[in-house]
Amino acid sequence: MIELDTETLRRYDSEYLWHPFTQMSEWENAENIVITRGEGSYIIDSEGNRYLDGVAAIWTNVHGHCRKEINEAVKEQVDRLEHSTLLGLSNDRAALLAKRLIDIAPPGLAKVFYSDNGSTAVEIGVKMAFQYQQQVGNTEKKKFIRFDNAYHGDTVGSMSVGGIAIYHEVYAPLLFPTIMAPSPYCYRCALAPEGDCRSCGLLCLQELERLMKEHAHELAGLVIEPSVQGAGGMIVQPPGFVKGVRELCDRYDVLMIADEVAVGFGRTGAMFACGKEGVTPDIMAISKGISAGYLPLAATLTTRKVYDAFWGAYSELKTFFHGHTFTGNPIACAAALASLDIFETDRLLERLPEKIDYLQDRLQRLMELTHVGDVRQEGMIAGIELVRDRHSRDPYPWEERVGVRVCLEARKHGLFLRPLGNVIVVFPPLSISLDELAMLMDGIEASIRSVTE
Ligand code: PMP
């Protein structure tokens, strides 16, 4: 393999690459890090510097980097079958993984439709719900309900059900109309100004009910990130919210589409976030952790009830006319199968509570810092919201890039972090050790102090 020096790599990067979600005028003028290796909880750059990966690549690497068993499974699969198609054929890895996914999914989910990224998995869910309603005779039910601060990806359909204006505003004329429900964002709640979600009686859920009642006749589905709105700022939902949403969907005959792209695969402490409140959605989108970050893979799971609505003679045109070239790619499925094995062999979920408790302690300590307004945690996900003024909750103006500055400062402590505006994200590999978690939280605390005090 050709090994290039850092200067050449940086030059090639800035001449030929266009990075996602990146203002390239800033990127091209910066001395950027080029990652060349990964090892457990660390990524290593072309100069040999090691960074503790505080965000598991992009919320994907459940077992850290370059885990031996997954490496072996991928290598073995490459020598057996690298690609085939699910159009008119099956493959052994895709079939086996489908069975294993159904075994661990919330009870009642029965069928797996593969794709290769989170946006697409959600978009498939939206199309499935739409077509389902048409085919069971609910021909008026064509609309979707979405949440403020939601993020479901960047394709046109997934943007339509998202709610983060700055990402998607420019594309507004391309998007289909939806009904927007309030975000369950207790720290900045527009409905309960006191911001006390414990005593407000879930006003956000009451408002959702009002909207659903009003629009029930035209609502095909509701799209939700259960437990945590991720890209919106790691906004943790109050207990009972997901269950309440499920009940409303049942009451108003609306399909519940759960986007578990970020929260699935152990992130919240349970295999799937819906499972924490005993909820089975009608449709569930998964990606990111599915292949432990190794290869592009996603899936949209659904129930027999939804699947059965697509049955019929070919001439009835009830087929789900959707598919992607790399659907069910066997190498990606082999990585996913190896990852599921590690969940079992490492007893990963059983070992999480200790780490979750430790993280909770460290987050509480951060509340002593003058400019930490809120800390939010769900399992191994945390958001630390930095504010200019703690009492008024006055945010830092976004142009000050406080989150970015904290994350750059954290590099001096050997950490890789990526913020969401003024929110510092903690999303490490689930396999992180307690010592590494301590190092991560020490570095975050020191970096917040040095930038804000
Ligand atoms: N849904 C959620 C909840 C996500 O967090 C993301 C990605 N951050 C997506 C969908 C989109 O996934 P992808 O980037 O793989 O398209």
From TrEMBL:
Subunit structure, interactors included: Homodimer.
Chain positions found as N6-(pyridoxal phosphate)lysine: 288
Site feature Participates in the substrate recognition with KAPA and in a stacking interaction with the adenine ring of SAM, where: 21
Main location: cytoplasm
Xref: InterPro entries: Aminotrans_3, Aminotrans_3_PPA_site, BioA
Protein name per Swiss-Prot or TrEMBL: Adenosylmethionine-8-amino-7-oxononanoate aminotransferase
Primary role: Catalyzes the transfer of the alpha-amino group from S-adenosyl-L-methionine (SAM) to 7-keto-8-aminopelargonic acid (KAPA) to form 7,8-diaminopelargonic acid (DAPA). It is the only aminotransferase known to utilize SAM as an amino donor.
Keywords: Aminotransferase, Biotin biosynthesis, Cytoplasm, Pyridoxal phosphate, S-adenosyl-L-methionine, Transferase
Catalytic activity: (8S)-8-amino-7-oxononanoate + S-adenosyl-L-methionine = S-adenosyl-4-methylsulfanyl-2-oxobutanoate + (7R,8S)-7,8-diammoniononanoate
Record carries keyword Cell wall biogenesis/degradation: no
UniProt GO molecular function: adenosylmethionine-8-amino-7-oxononanoate transaminase activity
Subcellular location: Cytoplasm
EC number from the UniProt entry: 2.6.1.62
Recorded metabolic or biological pathway in which this protein acts: Cofactor biosynthesis; biotin biosynthesis; 7,8-diaminononanoate from 8-amino-7-oxononanoate (SAM route): step 1/1
Gene assigned in the entry: bioA
Species annotation: Geomonas diazotrophica
Protein family according to the UniProt entry: Belongs to the class-III pyridoxal-phosphate-dependent aminotransferase family. BioA subfamily.
Cofactor(s) needed for function: pyridoxal 5'-phosphate
Domain of life: Bacteria
Residues involved in substrate binding: 151, 288, 323, 418
Residues reported to bind pyridoxal 5'-phosphate: 118-119, 259, 324-325
